[in-house]
UniProtKB/TrEMBL annotation, chains A, B:
SUPFAM superfamilies for the chain: Actin-like ATPase domain (SSF53067), Winged helix' DNA-binding domain (SSF46785)
InterPro entries, per the entry: ArsR-like_HTH, ATPase_NBD, HTH_MarR-typ, ROK, WH-like_DNA-bd_sf, WH_DNA-bd_sf
Family: Belongs to the ROK (NagC/XylR) family.
One Pfam family matching this protein: ROK
Official protein name in the record: ROK family protein
Domain of life per record: Bacteria
DNA sequence: CCAACTGTAAGTAAGACTGACTAACAGTTG
DNA sequence: CAACTGTTAGTCAGTCTTACTTACAGTTGG
């Protein structure tokens, strides 16, 4: 419910925003398309487009001929109206120094530059490191600093916006000092978003992956190291009170007549546990993902291993399904992806044994770096919204 | 993001809606108040109020004198602009016939009539029974049929709007035939909402109970019979794919070295389980709630019983907290209410043992029929929204 | 094969209409 | 008398409708 009120200026702002929003969401459109979409008259659409072009937010990108008559001009949101940078920070194995992946995208969604570097956060301050990477990448993409609108960080941790601090950091170094994000914001001069890496992978999954048509879904991340859960409810991510939703790695499991064994889900399906389980079944590999990939590819005696793994996964999923009842669960992460359809079928079978299953299980459909792409998607969405509301305000 | 566009008519509609929305949410207001809230000018506010009054949606309810000058007129949304009826269907024990509670409320939130009857749904068709109750109650309240805008049903079951069917019904009779709600809608000639009783209790808890100031919260319903979970995320209830979110009674519990014992949460904290646990500790009572009430009141040897019960409750809550991370959990239902602060403290202690607890545990603050009141709150909210959008449309 | 013609659609210009704002004012009350 | 409520009059902003100009595609005739 918009509790909005105002005079004719508001009207112009609304109409102009609507036009821009359609251009951003649906791509290039003619005046006639916009007329159809907004229900506005020809002169009004013309006026709105004129103002948007003057403001540098839209431009003519071509002409289209549809039968007799003059060719209609095709308008699109200017790709270089604004840029977003995504930075994905991750622990690259227990020994290696953390690696940072980053990408710049423009308003049209195009990736304009991309990089990956190793950073030792024990010796480098996160703020300095991130600032430098962002600046270099922006320069590489040829984007003017004034057009850099948003920086989206992905961290293997949870972020609590209320206290502005990052918790459960899986990365070494000064990441968990409070106020870090504010500092970054000040240094970069842009808005800065921080989110859990698994949450951002879910964003990518919704945009371009297996969850494209899902109403809601849960994404279970089975990584080489940790595991995590992202919950997408109709396109909105559930983050929890302190950004701690989906921290199911720490979910204590119930031991019925229980001497407290303190078993949690991480002990069952975390990377080391998967490796150990594989070894028990005679499958040896360097990483959990490799072990699962071998099994999925049909190594001898693979079926029992996959079944055992699927059984463990289903334990965690049972809780998720009982609480949330998502129509779709996507398996992702290095291990999830490696498992492919074989793991998916095993999990489906394991779940069906416990209860009549009405939840679809799917495997991630993203081959690239899901976290980085998701962060970019999220960042660009933020930029889109900022542009739309900026139209609102500039007209005031 | 409003993808709204239009001409001056839209402007009028927006402004008028905004005025009505404020009247509905904040209660009686003067023109000056509305000017402040909407930012509109005096003539515009006057015009909007004139139109709302003409449409029977608002009226002058008094005058207020604030210093010199004429006394300002105080406007309020007409209480009798529309009515909502809430109907709560529940199983009253295993032997008794189901009981139905119902109430009529007006736009101002006032309860105008209320009733409670026993209905044998084995012999009476649900549609006929509900229609009759609604009609009688409406007549009792002196509300004209044309003004009855919405009927909200509360059922001890989950409702799947996609298939228009009610699942897991705890009530006997023809409740689970598909299309029932559509039928009811046709018969009553109003919009009809159906929701799980625990969800609706959560609505009441948010409006007038322990969760009034919470950002989000989970409500754990410990009833004399079943248990349930409602999840409120910033004022929106999470319902799940097929209305099955929060069906944690069926959550299978993990047995570590598991011969499948098929233990679920219902077996641990369902009514019979609570009664049995009480008996083990030498506490005998007719209902689970009575047992817990006795313990909370300080019956001898009560502490170990409460601790054991709290331990079981914490098993279920651990899963909820791991998945959702709510800032607040409210214990409700007959057993939860009976437990009072004693149970709350016991659960808090049990939870703190498992992990550093950042979640507040509270006891319901609603003494009346939470489900019925919540259904009425939900119904009236629907009515408010309908009124606001009707203003939008009537101006078109 | 080319040139002119015809019908259709894109975009613009002009005038009418709607709604909100400002400013001034009449009426009330402490 | 001063301050405040609510109305009236006039103005301004923005969109709509209608009519017009211009451009293009396809067709027809030499």
């Amino acid at each position: 419910m918009p509790r909005l009120a105002g005079s004719s200026k508001l009207l112009r702002a609304i109409n102009e925003s609507a036009a821009l929003a359609h251009l951003l969401e649906r791509g290039p459109l003619t005046r006639a398309d916009l007329r159809e979409l907004t229900g506005l008259s020809k002169p009004t659409i013309s006026e709105a487009l004129r103002r948007l072009t003057d403001a540098g937010l839209a431009r003519v990108v071509g002409h289209v001929s549809a039968g007799p008559g003059p060719n209609a001009e095709v308008y699109a949101a200017s790709p270089d109206a604004a840029y977003a940078v995504a930075v994905s920070v991750r622990d690259s194995g227990e020994t290696g120094t953390p690696s940072v992946a980053a990408a710049v995208g423009d308003v049209s969604g195009q990736v304009r530059a991309r990089t990956e570097v190793a950073v030792d956060f024990l010796r480098t301050d996160p703020v300095a490191a991130v600032t430098e990477i962002v600046e270099r990448l922006r320069a590489d993409a040829g984007a003017p600093a004034s057009r850099l609108a948003h920086v989206q960080l992905a961290v293997p941790a949870s972020y609590d916006p209320q206290t502005d601090s990052i918790h459960h950091v899986g990365v070494t170094g000064g990441w968990n000092r409070p106020g870090l994000v504010r500092e970054l914001r000040d240094r970069l001069g842009t808005s800065v978003g921080v989110d859990n890496d698994v949450n951002l992978a879910a964003v990518a999954e919704r945009r371009r992956g297996a969850a494209r048509d899902a109403d809601s879904f849960a994404l279970l991340w089975l990584g080489d190291e940790g595991l995590g859960l992202a919950i997408d409810l109709g396109g909105t991510l559930l983050r929890g009170a302190r950004g701690g939703a989906g921290e199911i790695g720490y979910m204590p499991l119930f031991a019925p007549d229980g001497e407290d064994r303190k078993v949690d889900l991480q002990d069952l399906v975390g990377g080391p546990a998967v490796l150990a389980l594989a070894a028990e079944h005679g499958i040896r590999a360097r990483t959990p993902a490799a072990a699962v990939a071998a099994a999925a590819a049909g190594a001898e005696d693979a079926a029992p291993f996959l079944a055992a793994l699927a059984g463990r996964v289903s334990v965690g999923l049972a809780a998720v399904i009982a609480v949330l009842d998502p129509p779709l669960v996507v398996l992702a992460g290095q291990v999830g992806r490696a498992g492919g359809p074989a793991l998916r079928d095993a999990v489906t079978a394991a779940m069906a044994r416990a209860e009549p299953l009405e939840t679809t299980i799917a495997v991630t459909a993203i081959d690239d770096d899901a976290v980085l792409l998701g962060a970019l998607d999220a960042g660009l969405t933020t930029v889109h919204e900022a542009l739309i509301t900026s139209v609102h305000e500039s007209t005031t």
